[in-house]
Amino acid sequence: xxxxxxxxxxxxxxxxxxxxxxxxxxxxxxxxxxxxxxxxxxxxxxxxxxxxxxxxxxxxxxxxxxxxxxxxxxxxxxxxxxxxxx
Length: 86
Hints:
With 86 residues, the protein is an all-alpha fold. The protein has one domain. Helix content is 74%, strand content 0%. It is rod-shaped and about 95 Å long.
């Protein structure tokens, strides 16, 4: 079975290279992790905002439909009575 040379040199997970212990490497890894967490939080907030917007649009459409129904009923009632609305 052929094993590439780089696979032989890859350290095991419990044997991290020495450069992982350097402070700036650890700080860079932590900064990337923090950036990923911030991005995930922003995406979650965006999704919540979109859901709230959709709910508000649905409520507005419902209120407009109810108002149109009431105005149509009132208009039909006034027309039946012979009252003209201006």
